[in-house]
Design brief:
Helix 2 runs antiparallel to helix 15. A five-stranded mixed sheet has the order 2-1-3-13-6. Strands 8-11-7-12 form a four-stranded mixed sheet, sandwiched between helices. With about 325 residues, it is of the alpha/beta class. The chain is built from 16 helices and 13 strands. The N terminus is likely disordered.
């Protein structure tokens, strides 16, 4: 089967078409049972435009592969991991699911590996660092989805009014926040320490001063560099009221919404915010998050994961759909 896929690929077919052509005949016995696909719903948040694309993508896939249907189920993002864990525990795992984590399912032997699902070219198209992050015991099980590198977004109109520019160090960021507060901005810097974003927000700050969650031998959170970073945040932003009234409760979704209403002057945000800001004709710009003493900090790479479960024995259909999703045309869209 995989040899045939490779030969079809080298003949010039796309990964999706090759896997589909090779897989349809083998899967025809199960065509009356649609694939179960569990994904996040973003409702009316800035991520809703991503969720809206599932319908058109599935329609195009089913037209290209009439023997395989897809049953889409959307779950609110905040409940996604909990819902998936319950389904798996109850013996009702979906065929394909989106989640924030994959390793526990891989360690339990519940998932197909990437090499079970993709032709050589499609599997090789994954960015190496993301592919490696999706591995357990050197086998890739987690398929990076919605991968992005957050940036420092800021409100150009408010920055102009406060007479400040995009900060290039933490001292400049603090001074910009002071100036924004002086013109009445409720939350000069949107410090997102609530559910949904805290680990990402904190990691960006730790990396910007040479810290991080792990050292050479494993997790190492309470080290001097990290303590200095969190102390700086407390003393320079939080206690001075420059990070809003309650940073520990500020979620990513709420922060983006407040930014688009002019209530937050600057924040770390994913590129998905660009689409919402463009549609609203919002005056924004973005810049690298600064290192403490100046310059661009190491970027944080973030993503959700897709994974394919073995429970229903539908490797061929899962591979066909995922190869279509991760084919160059679909991935670019």
């Amino acid at each position: 089967m995989r040899r045939r896929q490779f030969l079809l690929q080298t003949a010039g077919l796309t990964g999706a078409t090759a896997l589909g052509a090779a897989g349809l005949s083998a899967c025809s016995a199960e065509t009356d049972t649609p694939l179960k696909l569990l994904v996040a719903s973003y409702d009316k948040s800035v991520g809703s435009s991503i969720g809206d694309q599932w319908g058109s993508l599935i329609g195009a896939f089913e037209k290209a592969h009439p023997g395989i249907g897809v049953d889409l189920e959307r779950v609110p993002f905040a409940k996604l991991d909990q819902t998936l864990a319950r389904r798996v525990k109850d013996g009702d795992a979906p065929d394909i699911a989106q989640s924030n984590l994959f390793a526990p399912y891989a360690e339990d032997g519940r998932l197909y590996g990437a090499s079970d699902l993709f032709d050589v070219r499609t599997e090789g198209d994954f960015i190496r660092s993301y592919a490696e992050a999706g591995m357990v015991d050197r086998v890739q099980y987690g398929l990076p989805f919605l991968a992005s590198t957050p940036r420092l977004f800021y409100n150009k109109a408010l920055f102009k009014q406060a007479r400040v520019k995009a900060p290039r160090s933490w001292a400049e960021l603090r001074d910009a926040a002071v100036a924004l507060k002086a013109i009445g901005v409720p939350t000069p810097y949107g410090l997102q320490l609530g559910p949904e974003a805290a680990e990402d927000e904190v990691l960006a700050w730790l990396l910007a001063d040479g810290g991080g969650y792990a050292g050479l031998t494993g997790y190492d959170f309470a080290n001097p560099s990290n303590i200095d970073t969190l102390t700086w945040l407390r003393d320079n932003l939080v206690t001075r009221g420059l990070a809003g009234a309650d940073p520990k409760s500020l979620t990513r979704t709420d922060a983006y919404a407040q930014f688009l209403r002019g209530k937050i002057g600057m924040l770390i945000a994913h590129p998905v915010l660009m689409g919402a800001a463009d549609r609203a004709k919002f005056p924004y710009a973005h810049a690298p998050f600064p290192q403490k003493l100046g310059g661009a900090a190491p970027p944080v790479g973030l993503n959700d994961w897709l994974m394919a479960f073995k429970q229903n024995g539908r490797r061929e259909q899962c591979g066909t759909f995922l190869s279509y999703l991760y084919g160059r045309k679909s991935a670019l869209a």
